[in-house]
Amino acid sequence: MNLRKTSSRIFLNIIILLFMLIWVLPTLGLLITSFRPEEAVSNSGWWTVLNNPLKFTQFTLENYKQVLGSAGMDTAFRNSFFIAIMGTLLPVMAAAFAAFSLAKIEFKGRGLAYALIVGLLVVPLQLTFIPILKIFNILGIAGTFPGLWLVHTGYGLPFAVFMLHNFFVSLPDDLFEAAYIDGASMWTVFYRLALPLSIPALASLIIFQFLWVWNDLLVALIYLGGNRSVAPLTVRLSSLVGSYGQDWHLLTAAAFVSMIVPLIIFFSLQRYFVRGILAGSVKG
Amino acid sequence: MNMFQNKKKWVALFLGPALLILAFVLIYPSVQTVILSFMDQQSEHFVGIKNYIYAFTNRDMLISFRNNLMWLIFFTAGTVGVGLILAILTDKIKYEKFAKSVIFLPMAISFVGAGVIWKFVYTFRPPGSKQIGLLNQLMITLGLQPEGWLIQGPWMNNLSLIFVGIWIWTGFCMVILSASYKGIPKDMLEAGRVDGANEWQVFRHIIFPTMKPTIAVVATTMVVNVLKIFDVVYVMTNGNYRTEVIANRMYKEMFQYRNFGRASAIAVVLFVFIIPVIIMNIKRMKGEES
């Protein structure tokens, strides 16, 4: 009986370790390859490094120099920041105002307004591309950051309103009424009371939206086109895959550059990250 | 609260901007796309349901439907199945948190990044030359021939792409299912075991029925993901070797062939596929809240 228990314990651990290997090895291979010289990468597998892992002369930063210079990943990195920061702040701000009014002010048609906004969660982004692009072309904001900020705001709003509304509804009404009786204006109640109380919900939402925009390929591809000067990391990386084909020393370095910010967020803010991702699963 | 003065002014100020943006970015374009789907290439003439006939009869479209169906079956089964297995197994080990972090990690990186990671794993060199892709090296170590994983269709290349999707999303399923598994009272499982049930019976008669609503929510979420899958295919094969899916087809009609009528029709088809699944999901979530 005891022997059976021990053997099934070992079996269990082997299975889990096997899964962990499948999940880690591909990423580890990418990371190691990105630090190997071009010749070594095309002549031997990255696992040969493990024969003498402490021989540091076999590693180089050359790939990163090239990728951040001539391959344009440095510009793309800056662009990703510009796009993701405003593409996060704008929808979260607009959603915070909207969700507060929907949750805490009684007015005619508020049920309808809320149903309409949350109902928009079902719209796949594909359904909006062509008409918006046509208008952007007329206005001359296709291929610009403000255009992209605007669409990310619209695409992010339904989910952001849904999440913040759920949170605001859970706050007791008496609290706000008391503040109001003390002479606070609606703005003060929102800014001094509702916002500070909702910091945990806001943090999860901000992280979710930031990573969504940072990792987005399709929306940037549609509205920015092939213009390299405004392309974010995802767009630049996917076009490198087309032009560098088998230059794995460069592709791996470029891929890692695109992953570094999400990885930092993942490791430093894991709790909010997981919460945001789970809540975001309703997003259409 | 019903006591504020100038209520109308505040509502307009707070809610107005969001509604305006939504009208411009989501509502107007969606309606417009439906109209465009009945128009020709340049959106000049009404063509009836011609674009829809194209969407359901063209050979490339049919291939993309078939591929999306393959994604639907294998991706959903894979993510939910492996997620469920890991949710239950990791509950029994000491390094649970660490193991879960490792499996959840791909959720943080972009699908483009994941695509590059796996394109490298699948790299193919002809037999006899040194392999630099992990998978083909493994094949050789096992005494097998290296394969062009992303080239040979329809099964091998599509399944290779689908596996990347599973690699990305399994962590998500695992975390939700794990929370649900931990919600099952431990005495319930113990009672089953004391009554002489083996682990499989405990799973079938206690764990699975209890977790069924959560499994359904996770599965439908995955189905929505699958219908909109784009990035992985775009980066890894760009739809070549007959690996195209619906979303890639729409992108190509829009930018390569500049046929706005057909692209709109495909978008509407995608929408019609997605709608029932999402409504089901939202209804379930509401049911769980109350």
Q: Mind sketching the topology for me?
A:
The complex is a heterodimer of chains A (about 280) and B (about 290).
Chain A: H1 2-34, H2 38-43, H3 62-68, H4 73-104, H5 110-119, H6 129-139, H7 145-169, H8 173-181, H9 186-197, H10 199-215, H11 218-224, H12 233-244, H13 248-268, H14 270-279
Helix pairs in contact in A: 1-13, 3-13, 4-7, 4-10, 4-12, 5-7, 7-10, 7-11, 10-14, 12-13
Chain B: H1 7-36, H2 50-57, H3 59-90, H4 96-104, H5 111-121, H6 134-141, H7 155-182, H8 186-194, H9 199-227, H10 231-236, H11 246-255, H12 260-289
Helix pairs in contact in B: 1-12, 2-12, 3-7, 3-9, 4-7, 7-9, 8-9, 9-12, 11-12
Give a structural overview:
The complex is a heterodimer of chains A (284) and B (290). With 284 residues, chain A is mainly α. Chain A has two domains: 2-60; 72-282, MetI-like fold (Orthogonal Bundle), CATH 1.10.3720. Chain A is 75% helix and 0% strand. Chain A is built from 14 helices and no strands. With 290 residues, chain B is an all-alpha fold. Chain B has twelve helices and no strands. Chain B is globular, with a radius of gyration of 24 Å. Chains A and B meet through helix 1, helix 2, helix 4, helix 5 and helix 6 of A and helix 1, helix 3, helix 4, helix 5 and helix 7 of B.
